Amino acid sequence: MTVVFSACLQSGSESTPTAGDCAVAIRFEGVVYVEGGFSKQAVEHLGRADRASCGDMGRPDPRGTYIADDAARVPVWSFPGYDPALVVGVRESGQTFRVLFAEDLPTIAKREIRQSGLLDVGKR
Known about the structure:
Strand content: 35-45%
Number of helices: 1
Strand order of the largest sheet: 7-4-2-3-9-8
Structural class: mainly beta
Number of strands: 9
Radius of gyration: 14 Å
């Protein structure tokens, strides 16, 4: 099991965790990716990834987002012109993809990708 610390979001009180306490995360080829926004740009199928689960609902000891050894598998996509070692996508709905950054990607690199036009701000 892989625990995804940077993908855990704090919302609600500590005594009453909510579904919003977990973030979208995947593991693809040994790299953990965490949510970063949405995009409607063209994609290319890359493979399949392990989808994270949320261990916050109804638990006295919420553990947040984690990737189980027997995780569900989801299709993962690359964005042409972007290194899939840094950023990938999973389909949100229709032609909208959730953009996921490599968990250890430096903040400055995330900012550069955001400013590059990949993300559709406020669009789902």
